[in-house]
Amino acid sequence: MSTQPVNVATQKLPDMRYERHAGVPRQTDVSKALAHAAHPVLGNSSSEPVNVNEFEELARLALPNMYYDYYAGGAEDEHTLRENMQAFHRITIRPRVLVDVSQVDMSTTILGYPISAPILVAPTAAHKLAIPEGELATARAAAAAKTIMVLSYSSSCSIEEVASSCNAVRFFQLYIFKRRDISALLAQRAERHGYKAIVLTADTPRLGRREADIKNKMIYPPEKNLEGLISINIQCVDQGSKLETFANQMMDASLRWEDIRWLRSITSLPILIKGILTHEDATRAVEAGVDGIIVSNHGARQLDFSPAPVSVLEEVVDAVKGKVPVLLDGGVRRGTDVFKALALGAQAVLIGRPVLFGLAAKGEGGVRTVLEMLKNELETSMALAGCPCIKDITRSHVRTEHDRLPSML
Ligand SMILES: Cc1cc2nc3c(=O)[nH]c(=O)nc-3n(C[C@H](O)[C@H](O)[C@H](O)COP(=O)(O)O)c2cc1C
Ligand SMILES: CC(C)CC(=O)C(=O)O
């Protein structure tokens, strides 16, 4: 790892983040780490994770530093990375009692496709950095949980391999490249292989500054889905993150709202737009004819100091006026987070890093456990808040900072 400063602050005050993984052991030491975690007095208390947050440490132990940093990191000072979770913590739940919750039903639909709970797998790149089976394991875990996986265009297993891994509803995430023909080809391959929607990521005209990746001179694996389509020689670049160099060469930074029409012309699949954070853009997205909106700041990896998605969710929902479904991702780590997002008008949430951490720590079973944990927590939250089914979760079940403000004046 380079020790050169990558920002003004680190010139004066070394940022300890980059030291945190020094000497971190590899996968073989995870079981030893787990064994040592037994309580010295109580002895046999289980060291298995009991919530999804606990998978992060296991993943950190399992992964080479460069890959852990890539998965975990956010942009610049990582203010938004912290805020994505803290914004959920500022919302409280207003439970109702004496409601019959002997049966709790979390099932719902997205674009008409039934899922067991409103928790989807967000598109994240390069799952083979976590384990050799890569996205095939993730796809099987999502199918076992009866939910939808959004495959990243930058998957390390191909569109076709994932399509034939198991029978399930999947969506495909797309970037629009300078080479439009390549984006069109990817969308058409996804459609041909049974993916049911295109998720257009709109928040990446160029890559955000992920300083851990810059320090690590992040090496990015070859793009499986672009094999034979394009060759960009970035491995010779000695400076900074090679992913950043690659992405900035590929992305079409001139993309505009008018271009949604082009995307419509090359696919008959529904189009969800990912990366909306304001009511202005939500209105434009509806006008542009998209079939759904994902409120997202890309897991705080793009623009630092962009708002936490849950803090702007209601603004987007109000602008959309029910015309298309609104989903959310960013910072969802608990069933109560899912409950809060639904109460503020999201139809479902997606999770990114917890899936990667589950995969790195415990493979396919880890992803399955992560999804089951969130579902179990959501079910408990619904029971304790007096909501037997998803449609029973309403705005009046949460209290936000905006609600509190008037009462303080
Ligand atoms: C390692 C990593 C890779 C990602 N790759 C993509 C990607 O290829 N395409 C995309 O649209 N979003 C990508 N994202 C963003 C996720 O789709 C999602 O917005 C974010 O992870 C949600 O936040 P969370 O990680 O707090 O759940 C990536 C996120 C991470 C952490
Ligand atoms: C640019 C992509 C290849 C990956 C991505 O979106 C990410 O790392 O956040």
TrEMBL record:
Name of this protein: (S)-2-hydroxy-acid oxidase
Domain FMN hydroxy acid dehydrogenase stretches: 44-403
SMART domains in the record: IMPDH (SM01240)
EC assignment: 1.1.3.15
Family of the protein in this entry: Belongs to the FMN-dependent alpha-hydroxy acid dehydrogenase family.
Cofactor: FMN
Organism: Cucurbita maxima (Pumpkin)
Keyword check for ATP-binding: no
UniProt-recorded Gene Ontology molecular function terms: (S)-2-hydroxy-acid oxidase activity; FMN binding
One BP term from GO: hydrogen peroxide biosynthetic process
InterPro entries: Aldolase_TIM (IPR013785), Alpha-hydoxy_acid_DH_FMN (IPR012133), FMN-dep_DH (IPR000262), FMN_HAD (IPR037396), FMN_hydac_DH_AS (IPR008259)
Domain of life where this protein originates: Eukaryota
Subcellular location(s) of the protein: Peroxisome
UniProt entry keywords in alphabetical sequence: Flavoprotein, FMN, Oxidoreductase, Peroxisome
One GO location term (cellular component): peroxisome
Keyword Cell inner membrane belongs to the record: no
Pfam families from the UniProt entry: FMN_dh
Reaction equation(s) it catalyzes: 2-hydroxyhexanoate + O2 = 2-oxohexanoate + H2O2; a (2S)-2-hydroxycarboxylate + O2 = a 2-oxocarboxylate + H2O2; 2-hydroxyoctanoate + O2 = 2-oxooctanoate + H2O2
